[in-house]
Design a protein that fits this description.
Layout lengths: L1 E18 L2 E3 L9 E9 L4 E7 L5 E7 L3 E14 L15 E2 L5 H7 L11 H8 L7 E2 H10 L1 H4 L1 E2 L10 H7 L1 E2 L1 H14 L3 E9 L11 E10 L3 E6 L4 E2 L4 E7 L8 E2 L2 E2 L5 E12 L5
Parallel strand pairs: 9-10
Antiparallel strand pairs: 1-6, 1-17, 1-18, 2-5, 2-16, 3-6, 4-5, 7-8, 11-12, 11-15, 12-13, 13-14
Helix pairs in contact: 2-6, 5-6
Length: about 290
């Protein structure tokens, strides 16, 4: 399936301000099931764009603005081909079929902070995670699917305009959260059970929505299983696998992979507003 994606962000200021460099994450992470056919980035006149990769291999655009501005607009458009199956099969190594299992020495070293519970993680999160382990040993993938499906019965989805991510304990206590909050809770639970897990940000294409280019930025998780590699878990929608998902960036925590970050020199009330518009559209002739 070929998808056209457009991600537009506009900041408006009360008076001309000095805009400091902005960091943009928008380039999809390609692989066997996702290919990038076209990418165009327009940040307006009198700007300079420098490209680099971070420690996770995410492609970063750093945008420099010349002169004071009352408005900035950053427009990323791209075309991708997504061939991920809706019902994927995972070639999990035999030794990892049953939980618990140990990662080998190299995998454990390379996963590092992505595996194991975070220091000071709340007891409520650990208890919630352990509640999904019906027996030991148990089927590894079934456990992770149960954990993925078990988020929404406990935590209602709630869009949040506020920046940042709730702590997993806070999300549990409130019983609600955004996609990034729910993903963070899933990741904390998976790590608490001994799995290597990481945060993912990108775009969502939902073919169940009416035609017209509905789409959004989205946050989900990936868990590393020997043999299968990184498997996508989207607890906000109860889905497993990469169908409908266009990953842009991965990291240890959501805060490391916000789509656009940057500052300006001025007072807080100089910012009049920020508008974000994302469309993800199936292109003609594709399924």
């Amino acid at each position: 399936m070929k998808l056209g994606i457009r991600h537009r962000t506009r900041y408006r200021y009360r008076r001309p301000v000095t805009v400091q460099p902005h960091r943009l994450l928008a380039v999809p992470r390609c692989g066997a099931e996702l290919r990038l056919d076209e990418f165009i980035l327009d940040a307006g006149p009198d700007t300079a764009i420098a490209w680099s990769d971070d420690v996770f291999g995410n492609r970063i655009a750093t945008i420099d603005f010349t002169g004071d501005r009352r408005e900035i607009a950053i427009d990323a458009s791209m075309v991708v081909e997504l061939d991920a199956p809706a019902w994927p099969l995972f070639a999990i190594a035999v030794e990892a079929h049953r939980y618990p299992f140990p990662y080998d020495e190299d995998d454990r070293a390379d996963l590092g902070a992505l595996a194991g519970p975070a220091s000071g993680e709340a007891d409520s999160v650990a208890a919630f995670a352990r509640g999904f382990v019906a027996a030991e040993p148990t089927d590894t993938l079934a456990l992770l699917k149960d954990l993925n499906a078990g988020m929404l019965p406990r935590v209602a989805y709630r869009p949040r305009e506020e920046e940042g991510t709730q702590s997993p304990a806070e999300t549990l206590a409130l019983g609600s959260g955004s996609c990034r909050d729910i993903a963070a809770l899933f990741i904390a639970c998976a790590r608490g059970l001994g799995f290597g897990a990481r945060a993912v940000s990108g775009y969502l294409h939902d073919p169940d929505q009416a035609a017209g280019g509905q789409g959004s930025t989205h946050a989900w998780a990936e868990v590393f299983l020997p043999g299968a590699g990184w498997i996508a878990f989207d607890p906000t929608h109860g889905r497993v696998g990469d169908a409908h998902l266009i990953p842009v960036a991965v990291a240890r925590e959501n805060r490391q992979i916000m789509p656009l970050t940057g500052r300006y020199a001025g007072s807080a009330d100089d910012l009049l507003g920020m508008d974000v518009d994302v469309t993800v559209t199936a292109m003609a002739g594709t399924g």
